[in-house]
Design brief:
With 423 residues, the chain is an alpha/beta fold. The protein is built from 16 helices and 21 strands.
Amino acid sequence: MKIDKIYQLFQQSSGVCTDTRSLKNNQLFFALRGPSFNGDDFALEAIKNGASYAIVSEHCKDKNDQIISVSDPLKTLQELARFHRDQFEIPVIGLTGSNGKTTTKELINEVLSSEYETLCTQGNLNNHIGVPLTLLGLQPSHEMAIIEMGANHQGEIAELCKIANPNLGLITNFGKAHLEGFGGIEGVIKGKSELYQHLIHVGGVIFFNEEDSIQKEKLAAYDNRSSFGLVEEANIYLELLRTAPTLTLQWENLELSSSLFGKYNALNIAAAVALGSFFEVDPISVQKSIINYQAKEMRSEVRTINGKQLFVDAYNANPSSLKVSLETFKSLNWKNTALVIGDMFELGEESDKEHRAIVDLIIALGFDEVYLVGKHFQQTDHPFKGFETTTKLLENFPESLRDKNIYLKASRSMTLEKILDRL
């Protein structure tokens, strides 16, 4: 069945679904395949539970009038999302980068949604499945869309751009994330810059960090661009007034106070202000949006448990984000502290060197009570207390942690936040 026919079915449906456990009546069910499941096996269940149609692979054995066979359900989902996106002549902002994507996306949405009806990527739906699902949520009422794009190897951002077709965008930064998949930092730069290549091809607007020499170099010959940053040369300039206890910035004649920490978040705020300025959001609305924004769970989040403070940054970790996060925590000058840090993943051949560099940084910053969790950290020669897994840490939980103000950071799969229940 051609995509225009499937689109007609989509228009008559109540949306799309890829998981029968969350299926709603009259949705299109897309039978995707994963490492441990085959969506084709659930096609009849989806129809029984109210799906209007099930889009399955040609190998599906089940047949009826509500089951539609295609060569690749995932590709069909992506084509449907692009077809739907092309029905809207609205600004679509594409956003990627090694660190800070989600916070920057949320800040931009906070600012723009103060005056516009926006569609924004929810949670971490930023991959080859999440981006199509987000785009298929576009409604006639939406005036713009903010689409986060994640990747762990070259070519992914280019593919996501084919689906979302952004006409504006930005890269937060190029950092040491997913080095194994990208093939080193140069591969990261090349892979993330696929967003630039797309935007240049379509004549879109590119926003960039004035202080990032790599971004400036890549955009030197492109005119449809606008810079933001903490230096006066930027088109949108924010002066960093205070970093403690939280960020305070000056934009034109307005003071922007935030609940966020660290220079890296100051740049994320600057990006949001730049987008707000471009779309002529009232400056007072921009100011209120920045003031009202609260960090999402486990992203540079400060909590209080039993009278002790916790700096929880355990959503993810890579060498770049861990370095700036540690330096930011140190600048807070909390007393009676302990660090609990877990392994960083997907670093390939650079893993040993990067974990060693973090150990050296912890020593240089002068932290005393430190717990390193994970096999990678245990392979380094470090003077701190170590556990091979989070489970081992929980089984031998240090009682002294209950009396400390704690810094917590690790890659997502370490699930290091489990220790919060012990405090």
